Amino acid sequence: MTKNIRKREARKGLLISSTYLVYAAIFWGYPFVWLVILAFSRWRYVGSPRFAGFRNFLRVLYDPIFWKAFFNVLNFLMYYIPIVLIFSLLFALALSKIKYGKTFVALSFLVANISSGVAYSIMFSKLFAENGPLNQIIYKLFNTTIPWFTSPQLAMFSISLIVVWKFIGYYGLILYAGIISIPNNIYEAAELDGANKYVKFFKITLPLLNPSIVMVLVFAISLSFGIFTEPYMITGGGPMRSTLMPMMVMYTSAFQKLDPTYAATMSIFTAIFSFVIIWITRKLLEREVDIV
Amino acid sequence: MKKLLFVLFLTLIIMSFAKTKIVFWTAPNPNQEAYWKKLVSEYEKLNPDIDIEWTTIPAAGSSEEAILSAIASGRTPDICTNIFSGFAAQLIELDQLVELSKLPGFDEVVSQRKMNDIIKGWKFMGKSYVLPIYSNPILMWWRKDILQEYGFKKPPRTYSEIYELSKKFVVPKEKYTMRVVAGRNWWDRWFDYITYYYAASEGKPYIDLKKYRAVYNNDAGIKVAKFFETMFKNKWTAVDLGNAPLYNGVIIGSLKGPWEIPYAENQFPEIIKNITITPPVVPDNYPNDKPIYTFADTKGLVIFKSSKHQKEAWDFVKWVYSNPENDKLWLEMTKMPPARSDLLKNPLFKDFFDKNPLAAEYAKYVGYAIPPALISKTVDVQDEMTYSLIEPIMYGKANAEDAVKNSVKKINRIIW
């Protein structure tokens, strides 16, 4: 009898999850298999792929453009992670203090996240242009202009500022959810022990926010390897390839240079690197947090 | 009655199946769409057994992507327009295109359309796979009104004249002489370095297609690079000139194609009255009596090998391009010069050019406009040109001579 129930339950479970399994097979399994086939092949959209062994992998290893793009991601992370983390945290803290209109403020920040990448990229490229309104103000005030997107040193920083703007609302809400889940009695107990607000922040809020912070970091790292629209639309990967990202190299290889198999191999490298960096980050920063 | 209707319906179905269907893709451009719509319906009326399924190239990042996806998924059209030479070379390498020069009547079409010289720039290993549709020479637009204000009766012709003008006109961070670099996309090299190189070298190629080597590390190539270097070093031009700089008076000159005419007529009707058009500027020692060559932004038409109706497709193409009236219509509707060398001699086009003097300037240079090198690695080559030649000069990271030599070396590594 129990066996029968178990069987029936198992069948039901399979039936319910089958929709997702079919979905995953079509939209994840099939492309994944195709990706592996492509990485070991030579194919230029016509005919059948021909086996090429590790040729594409060796090409990636010796491709200075791919490595330049990879180091650009690290450069981007250096700017992006601290800025986005600090501003998202500030936003989350401010949101937790607001008494009225909390939803409105949260939604206002989220608008950036759901805006069209193409649209705001065009907007920012005009705003930050050499003769754009921002530089005109700076010129009037300080008699100089800032080459936001035209200086090889500054371009990546400017791009990261735009991405920060886009994600503050989203990451901020994740951190906000973490903040409000910290029980008040922990703070009350700390206050009784004479803790000031800095101590409360560094000894209670920040440690208890660890899961949310790590989650934001994981999101931010995976986003950095997949960034495309902003550099593609604003700088085209320049100046001096300083904002060229792996996605852009893959895109041009696959669709402009007719080399989809090479693009597929680069995507495997990129996925592995992002996985490794996420793994290291979690190993270094993740702590088990128990809120009793 | 019901039976009769049924028979009629059946006949209609059979008739529709009996028609030969040709899939035809054209550029997604409103003016070109209106042109093809008219011609396709005319041809279908004349040939009731032919059904041309005409659409614009499906929406994608670029025409090339859409065509590649179609090839990969087996949905290639029979005929397609909007093919640039580099992409044509890639398609030829993939063995996707019909060799048009083998088709009956090809030579007649070429000579009827006065394309004998133009077609040479489109040959791949001596064979023609693409029929050029239009040829847009790239020319300099100058603000006549501003030039006069600074005492220049005619636009500068040489680099020294540009320098002289720059010394009088430029106000750092406010006003610059001209746009020198078009942008950092790979295709921008067509509209800056390659155009100036063709002008400085009397139209010599920048890639030797027989030896497969970049050859612009010569006197002309270095002079152009030095011109770029001088302009950037002295801050007479800038990397970013802002929005519509020519119309806003931030610069006095810029290279532009004929597609700019309808745009400027609509957006800046007062300013376009003060525009004068000249060929690209040349080195100081460029002979006065020699014509100045320029770059041709040109697109062509191809028939795909996968087509089951190659004969019918070619018949349609022949019909379109054997009749100069169709080129006249094209000119009127798109304002882009058809790829024919008799534009200014043929009385058929006279009326149009009389009414459109700026377009007439472009027509003058169709014969001196040279398409890009017919190589399959256009994107890699021009991307490298950006990285190793243009940007180092722009940012003062290398001198002109070194940048030219270094970029040629790197490009040769790509195309070998």
Q: Can you characterise this structure?
A:
The complex is a heterodimer of chains A (about 290) and B (about 425). Chain A is globular and about 75 Å long. The mean pLDDT of chain A is about 90. Chain A has 13 helices and two strands; from the N terminus they run αββαααααααααααα. Chain A has helices spanning about 1-40, 55-60, 65-95, 100-115, 115-125, 135-140, 155-180, 185-190, 195-210, 210-225, 230-235, 245-255, 260-285, and strands spanning about 40, 50. In chain A, a hairpin with a 7-residue loop joins strand 1 and strand 2. In chain A, about 75% of the residues lie in helices and about 0% in strands. Chain B is α/β, with parallel strands linked by helices. Chain B is built from 16 helices and eleven strands. Chain B has helices at about 1-20, 30-45, 65-70, 85-95, 105-110, 145-150, 160-170, 195-200, 220-235, 260-265, 310-320, 325-335, 350-355, 355-365, 380-395, 400-415; strands at about 20-25, 50-55, 80-85, 130-135, 140-145, 205-210, 215, 255, 275-280, 295-305, 370. In chain B, strands 1, 2, 3, 4, 10 and 11 form a six-stranded mixed beta sheet that branches. In chain B, strands 8-5-9 form a three-stranded antiparallel beta sheet. A two-stranded antiparallel sheet of chain B has the order 6-7. In chain B, strand 6 (about 205-210) and strand 7 form a beta hairpin. Chain B starts with a helix and ends with a helix. The mean pLDDT of chain B is about 90. Classes of the chains: A mainly alpha (about 290), B alpha/beta (about 425). At the A-B interface, helix 12 of A face helix 3 and helix 15 of B.
